[in-house]
Amino acid sequence: MDWDIFRISNDIPVIYKEKTDGFSTALAVWIKIGSRYEPSAINGISHFTEHILFKGTKTRTAQDIKESIEGKGGSFNAFTSEELTCYYIKILEQYLDTAFDVLSDMVKNPLLASQDIKNERNVIIEEIKMYYDTPARFVHDLFDQTIFENHPLGCLISGTEQTVSAITKEYISGFIKKYYSNKNIVISACGKFDKEKIKTMAEKYFSSVGGMEKTNFIPFEGKDCGPKVNIKIQKTEQAHFCLGCRTYQKEDERNFILTVLNVILGGNMSSRLFNEVREKRGLAYEIRSYAKSYYDTGSFVISAGLALPKLSECMEIICDEFKKILNEKISEEEITRAKEFIVSHVLMGLEDNLEYSMWLGEQMATKKKLHTIKEIEEKIRAVSAEDVLKISSEFLRKENLYFAMISSEDKKDEVMNILERF
Asked: What does the DSSP 8-state code read for residue 320?
């Protein structure tokens, strides 16, 4: 089996995979809350809460938390996304009880000291400024603002300086009480452990978590309004842009086909755009593509950074490659290479206990149907050239093109002219 599942007495699910050929275990606690659930006035509270949980509990200082794990050779961290917050530890099997103890203490008993909140607010504001000063990173947030305009999916996960400044201790305390509940928690684990012991630990440390509200979000119901161009003027050496489309929600089976299309267009160094833009013409150091999916929508994105005078040529190449996908049959050789790349990376990625735990936990926290490794491989290998053509024609349309760029000059008319001719 790729996993087993049990539920502790308060109904928190634990999804796990035993591996006997290693020394470590990866443990993750998932909270089904993220930036898309937040009121606009306190955008960033999920991320702020993630930060503040590391600042101490009622029985441990921040230093105690770090030393409890790192003093035993373990590593730990956390992240916040649009739909999830995750806290995770990788540690040797004999210290798994400590990992359960620390993670449960952070989730159940955060100290929320006023001075810690004040200090961490400053830290997060500096983090936000860092993103603003990193156009290659921030352009992706600008793209989300463009494609998901006036919706929480278009808001920054970190929040803004204004919204973070408005988040108080009372807001964070109420947020934790409301959402860090048994209805919103999933636990995942992968590695070397005794399954009966992990059941005992999960019950011991998490059964006291009570129930409040189950999270709900505002569905995204945006209509195609492209081509749409959003350019932020900033002094930069390069222009950094994202061009993309809205695609499919997380449970949609067409995402398997989209994954293959992504690799063909820009997902690796063998891809069409990497060859055409970088290898043949030397227009950019980096050009890539990726796909993202949420509960109710998704996106497919091409991104690049290059000298501004080369922008039009690069945009023309991208649009030409879109047209080729729509009008020319993909060769069996190319589609086979893409499928082998995906399957191999899935299998190799899951060799790592932490990656395996992340894969299990994210599926359990966000999907109604969990796919086995065999099912994923079969669905990827079943993708045909006709499948790629079919889904491409569904979303590669002029009305579904969205463009965001950070550059030193406003090239909106130039970009719009190219997209209008698509």
From this structure: H
